[in-house]
Design goal:
By secondary structure, the chain is α/β, with parallel strands linked by helices. 33% of the residues lie in helices and 26% in strands. The strands form 5 sheets. Strands 1, 4, 5, 6, 7, 10, 11 and 12 form an 8-stranded mixed sheet that branches. The radius of gyration is 29 Å and the shape is elongated. It starts with a strand and ends with a strand. The structure holds magnesium ion (MG). Magnesium ion (MG) binds next to strand 13 and helix 9.
Length: 393
């Protein structure tokens, strides 16, 4: 079993007046909550415990109360930490003895950007060696300074790395090293690797992640906030819809009523353009398709105006913190002619989606009298939606 110990017992005074930094809200969620989720989500990890300060029980409860039930299952009772980080780790490890883990990952609560990939690299390194730590290259030249800030040496940058957490250890040797250091009255180790080195065990490195920053100063919080609320990733998905012609005198296309010598066979108003767009948007969100949300079996949607389907999908995008960048449609039919209605359709779709019409593209083609559209049996729409969504969405 793989266990995780998250160290959250520090007071974090360097980060300003916002209380212990691991409980401050970052883009709406406590830092500790963000730091825990990637570990709780990892299937290989069986138990996670947090070392907290004795004064922080209520803050801790508030930070973990919003976790999904499936994730919270792996969370064990928090451990009250000690006077130093080293003490807190030792006490946390002693609490984990009951779980009988073979491997333990030790992580700082002030690092809320640990990725699943970094955790996977830690676990892989932990399977190969009893102690391994994530390292990143040093880009600044490092100087060793003496009295008065005078430079006394310039270490070779190629031989230096910066070290992060999660660090991974075979459980029993790490606990033994901590107990030995405690018995020897040593309490100055600021990182577990230093303590393990002192105990005489080799420590390996694996590739860290520059994005896995430690929140230390107020400026770190400001840039983390910007990163979480400002970083959106682009996603693209497609949608497709077809309806067959039947008797009638108009079709709805792109939210516009177009007179025609036929109508379309449909449960709703049969607007293939809006249906394809709705599916493209739901596709970007990975939230099923139009039938998932508006089942044709439900009489409520009989004859429904398709505006509401598209409006619903746009609302879901907004609820997820997303931004619609572009909607592109290709309509395939021999008739009716799309060209004369193109601008009205763009404006209607832009209004439903609350977009500038410049972000809506409508193209039309025939299929050269081939196939079912060529035989005028029906009409088809293909849609592509391009969105930006919050990075963890
Ligand atoms: Mg349809």
């Amino acid at each position: 079993m793989i266990a995780v110990l998250v160290v959250a017992a520090g007071r974090g005074q360097r980060a300003g007046d916002g209380g212990p930094k691991q409980y401050r809200r970052l883009a709406g969620l406590p830092v500790l909550h963000r730091s825990l989720v990637p570990f709780l989500e990892k299937a290989e990890i069986g138990a996670v415990t947090v070392a907290i300060h004795a004064d922080d029980a209520a803050l801790y409860e508030a930070a973990v109360s919003g976790l999904e039930a499936g994730l919270a299952e792996k969370l064990r009772d928090p451990v009250i930490g000690g006077a130093t980080r080293q003490d807190s780790v030792r006490l946390g490890l002693q609490a984990l003895v009951a779980e009988a883990p073979e491997m333990v990952l030790v992580h700082d609560a002030a690092r809320p950007f640990c990725s699943g990939e970094l955790i996977a690299r830690a676990i892989a390194a932990g399977r190969l060696s009893p102690a391994a730590i994530p390292a990143t290259p040093v880009t600044d030249t490092i100087k060793q300074v003496g009295a008065g800030g005078v430079v006394v040496a310039t270490p070779d940058r190629a031989a230096l790395v910066a070290v992060q957490t999660p660090q991974v250890y075979a459980f029993a040797p790490l606990l033994a090293a901590h107990l030995r250091a405690h018995d020897a009255g040593l309490s100055h180790f600021t990182d577990d690797a230093a303590l393990v080195e002192w105990a005489g065990l080799p420590v390996e490195t694996f590739r860290g992640d520059a994005a896995n920053v430690k929140l230390t100063y107020e400026a770190d919080f400001i840039s983390a906030e910007t990163r979480l609320s400002g970083v959106l990733v682009t996603r693209v998905a497609s949608g497709y819809d077809v309806h067959s012609f039947t008797t009638g005198d108009h079709v709805w296309l792109g939210g516009v009523r177009i007179p025609h010598d036929r109508g379309v066979e449909a449960h709703s108003d049969g607007d293939v353009a809006l249906h394809a767009l709705t599916d493209a948007l739901l596709g970007v969100l990975s939230e099923g398709d139009i039938g998932t949300h508006f089942p044709p079996s439900d009489p409520e949607w009989r004859g429904a105006s398709s505006d509401r389907f598209l409006a619903f999908a746009c609302e879901r995008v907004r609820a997820r913190g997303g931004v619609i960048d572009h909607l592109d449609l290709t309509i395939v039919c021999e008739a009716p002619r799309v060209g004369p209605h193109r601008e009205a359709m763009r404006e209607r779709i832009a209004a439903i989606a609350d977009l500038a019409p410049a972000r809506v593209s409508i193209k039309a083609t025939t299929s050269e009298r081939m196939g079912f559209t060529g035989r005028r049996e029906g009409l088809v729409a293909f849609a592509t939606a391009t969105l930006r969504l919050p990075v963890e969405s």
